[in-house]
Amino acid sequence: MPPQSEMPPKIVVRGLTKRFRRGNEEFTALAPVDLDIAQGELVCLLGPSGCGKSTLLNLLAGFDEASGGTVHIDGEPVRTPDPRRVFVFQEYGIFPWATVRENISLGLRRRPEAERREIVERYIDLVGLRGFENSYPGEISGGMKQRVAVARALAVSPEVVFMDEPFGALDSLTRLSMRQELRRIWQLERLTIVLVTHDVDEALQLADRVVVMTSSPGRIAATIPVGLEHPRDVLSPAYGTLRKHLFGLLGVQDGV
Amino acid sequence: MSIPALVTAVVAAAVIVASRGLRQRAQAVVLPIFTGILLLAVWHLWAESTWYELATPGQPTRRVEVFPTPGRVLPAFAELASDGRIFRYIIASLFRVATGFGVAALIGIPLGLYAGWSTRGGYAIDPYIAALRPISPIAWIPISTLAFGIKDEAAIFIIFMGAFFPIVTGAATAVRSMPIAYVRAAHNFGLRKWELLRFVVFPAALPQIITSLRIALGIGWLVVVAAEMTAIQSGLGFLIVDARNMGMRYDLVVAGMIVIGAIGIGLDWLVRRLERLDSVRWGFSKE
Ligand SMILES: Nc1ncnc2c1ncn2[C@@H]1O[C@H](COP(=O)(O)OP(=O)(O)OP(=O)(O)O)[C@@H](O)[C@H]1O
Ligand SMILES: [Mg+2]
Asked: In terms of CB atoms within 10 Å, which end of chain B has fewer, N or C?
């Protein structure tokens, strides 16, 4: 639910486009996109594979250069990545050569030693990795790795967290508990989160607002506020209605 | 034909065939031992068959083998050990390889990281690495002896040439194949240029660098023998040519070859130990 609507939006996207060159053809991955995201909002970008979700998220985070249009965060144009807005990658994001603790300290190099230690230990507890702080990523499960990535991102006290299919590689039970955990942490830290997913239920369970995207060219088809209380009851009629609506927007029949 | 050797060969072959029925752990012990015994027996039988009659005036004709049997190589080891020659030669060869390989690693790793990381560096360096790499290090022997004379430096240079290119290419490829997410994460968390190299690019490339070091050391050990056969007068390679030239001592030749093989295994084992370090194990343990 977008709170304090009189405050200016945290993230303002206007006319954002991205074209890629493919051989000697231009390919439009992102048609002009307009989007506002409020401070403290949890927004999910939902859409089929190839519709430009990652492209949009990379532009928001400053990893890529837009072909046109602008992204402003707190009124400042976004040009490069910045520790105030961190990105959680689906895979490969955490470093396999470093321990859990070293990974979480990545963004804290310039903090004083004592402060750094205090923060790292706090986040190890927050994401439930106590006992594994000296393990290497190769020695822990997929869900634990993803928690390392989340802890590493949160440890730098970011204002915005971008997540590109953060739970995509996990089994459905682990995904569910990771969503609950993310929601809990989001409430604690009052973050702004933009999360990419192609899972309708993930979007419906997490988001204050679902931004539905469609492809060729990638664009926003609809923005759906999810006014349901947490914890969300996936069997409630209201949930079912929204779910049908989203599947409809994605052009897919629900049910097999 | 020696009957005991023939019997040994047949028995060893029979054991190898019969080991099919053993458990895997038993096979792991039995097979290497009995293939070894079989090889020795075949070697013996074959070497024995290469005899000729040596007729010396005033003495009875003798049978002499052209190739040494395993039994004649054994005392050759004792002979080489007793005058300390083998140890001096081993140390000489190892010293050359260590120096040539060390210098190659010292220059090759940073250069490869640079060529892989910087587009400009890649443009400048890649074509020359690609062109020099296929030239056998042995081809450098004439140039090397011309430049350094019949000295250690000549052999070291040739080993350097053999070890350098796999290391540079290995390091450059490692950096280029690094997932972009690593670099993005590093940028995102505000790492500066040197921190990025030290804490991300280098550790990400390290497993592949270690693999290339292993290959380079293997090549260095191959090349040192060749270099010592022509470019210098000590070391295990020299031992081999010298044993032949100074009296057709093929028993010493074979003993020297066995020592070279054994040390090669040892060197490879040493580098493989590096693969177990905590910070690189991730790059090797993909089942
Ligand atoms: N670097 C690139 N060069 C050329 N085309 C690209 C590049 N990156 C993305 N594209 C194209 O842009 C389109 C959108 O890609 P994008 O990765 O944003 O999709 P996505 O919605 O994240 O899909 P998925 O759910 O599969 O991750 C795709 O058709 C893709 O092929
Ligand atoms: Mg994507």
From this structure: C
